[in-house]
Amino acid sequence: MSAPLTFTGKVVVVTGAGGGLGREYALAFGERGASVVVNDLGGDIKGGGKSSAAADKVVEEIKSKGGKAVANYDSVEDGEKVIQTALDAFGRIVLVSFISDLIHRVHLRGSFMVTRAAWNHMKNQKFGRIIMTSSAAGIYGNFGQANYSAAKLGLVGLANTLAIEGQKNNIHCNTIAPMAGSRLTQTVMPQDLSESLKAEYVAPLVLWLSHDQCQENGGLFEVGAGWIGKLRWERSQGCIVRQKNQAMSPEAVRDQWDHICDFTNATKPSTINGSLATLVEVLSRVETEEGVAPNPARGAAGAPAAPSPDPVSAAYSHMQCILYALGVGMSTRENDHLKFLYEGHEDFCVLPTFGVIPSLGSLMDGGLGSLPGLNIDFTRLLHGEQYLEVFKPLPTSGKCATIADVLDKGSGAVILLDVHTYSGKELLCYNQFSLFIVGAGGFGGRRTSDKAVVTGSLLTTPTNSRSFRNSTTTLHGAALYRLSGDWNPLHIDPNIFSLSGFKAPILHGLCSFGFAARHVLKQYADNDVSRFKSIKVRFVKPVLPGQSLQTEMWKEGNRVHIECKVKETGAVVLSGAYVDLHATTGDAPHGLPELVFAEIGRRIKDLGAEMVKKVNAVFGWEITKGGNTVAQWTIDLKTGNGALHQGPYSGKPDVTFTVSDEDFMAVAQGQLNPQKVGYGFIVGTFR
């Protein structure tokens, strides 16, 4: 057994020790034999006032346990008085950091004051670039420069926060740590080196970071002698050094020190959220005993399935179906939207993605929330992924029951919830929710499932083959969408969304999900709900009501790959997503026309630049069957190196060809002269 760590004979000064972290530090040192100076001004949270009560109380706590302590009530700005208290009480000198008011006023406060004066002007003009000048002494430290180093690293923290706060107003803030000869460097480096490190080797970086084309924000760069390098933080994988319901000890820290400091497979956090996410995962792992001493039986092969919630009954009317359609952007301005919005329409029907709404009862009280052994705080729930499969067009009203199956992923970070929705004995649809719920795991359910639906990928999708559709959400979009039955208060209650770190309500992830599915249904199925089979998405980032959603789509067989972005920022909100459609015998793209256009696409890839120079036009193709358009293609020989994509052109084509499926196949097979039906030019172009 290793000997415990003690501080007998040591003198420790703890500032701000009247409460919070400082108090904990003071008590811990006192318990292990240190003589403690408990410093606390006793002011309020705004820095005003003064009281001895807080420090006195901590001193008495230490003494009551047999420790040694004295109180000090001075401001840390009066550092000499704080240290003198230690000398008078315990006769020893305590090493502390020195702060120079002059250095801070020149380097840190001066930068702050100038930035503050310019900030509102930059906000009003929606543009600004701020370059902070730090130094290697601030980043790495340097002997004899404690005051200077503190001020210079303070500038990095100031710049990082300004970068975050200014982003929405196109204000970017970056920091440079230049090495250039100056009066300040004459005393710390040889004269010839100082003269060689010219300021002109730094200025080009400053100019670039100041230019409106430069989108760098929150960066830290070392620069000098014609060399520039970017710095970033690196963090080891670390090690959990405590167990559930047991105290954490310094001995455990000591024993795991090599693991704590091992940078193998190190991470590179870049935001405070990245830092916090690790701690959230740690809390879950400790709670489920996956830290220092994991439970080998939990989640092992053959583990029993978790108990399932009781079936949840639900009923809905045409009103909820209409509210849902409005919530995902349907509008009476579009004639083909009316069948989703008017119960008197001869083709009145329900959007397929409404299938997620009845299943939500399995997430709330009486469903997942009532499952024994599963402790859920719904304010800590994040929606990771969603899969929906519809087995028949949903009725416009009715009663249904949802039956859920919970799959335990052990860490408490991810729970898969399978929900089957029935009308009587008829299965209407199947949902799989992938949920992130901190601390909810560890209830003994299966750790894996062959039913876990995987996401797709757009990585191999030709960019020039994608179709685009845009919709603008409304400022009251979240409030409207919830009326269809998605009642999560995160999307409307200021007390809830502020706790989650948002300044305003965010749009439901399933609302963005509905927008994207609606775009696909229009683009590739002409709003025919019977064509819709299933959809799978991964939720990436939130959408603010009022932002515009752009869905990029590419069809491969019966699968439409999709990626949804916020048009104003380019941020991806749905990724790894796809919609599967049912094939129909009337679908021209599944026959010869698709092969013909695939060949055209290959020729554009090989000879596109030459064709663009020769033709300089955009051709739209509409293939019909029985008088209805069943496929559309666009051949763009006007921009770039040419492109082909399935779907209509985003603008107005120079020429549009409308041809029946029968004529198209006859031309392609050489059974009909293209000149006789007016398509000779385009056929000749690709022959």
From TrEMBL:
Alphabetical UniProt keywords: Fatty acid metabolism, Lipid metabolism, Lyase, Oxidoreductase, Peroxisome
GO cellular component: peroxisome
Keyword match Ion transport: no
Pathway(s) the chain acts in: Lipid metabolism; fatty acid beta-oxidation
InterPro entries from the UniProt entry: HotDog_dom_sf, MaoC-like_dom, MFE-2_N, NAD(P)-bd_dom_sf, Peroxisomal_Beta-Oxidation, Sc_DH/Rdtase_CS, SCP2_sterol-bd_dom, SCP2_sterol-bd_dom_sf
Coiled coil: none
Segments forming domain SCP2: 599-677
A molecular function GO annotation: 3-hydroxyacyl-CoA dehydratase activity
Residue ranges constituting the Peroxisomal multifunctional enzyme type 2-like N-terminal domain according to the UniProt record: 316-439
Biological-process GO terms, alphabetical: fatty acid beta-oxidation
Residue span(s) of domain MaoC-like: 466-573
Keyword Lipid metabolism: yes
Subcellular location: Peroxisome
Similarity comment: family membership: Belongs to the short-chain dehydrogenases/reductases (SDR) family.
Protein's UniProt name: Hydroxysteroid (17-beta) dehydrogenase 4
Organism: Esox lucius
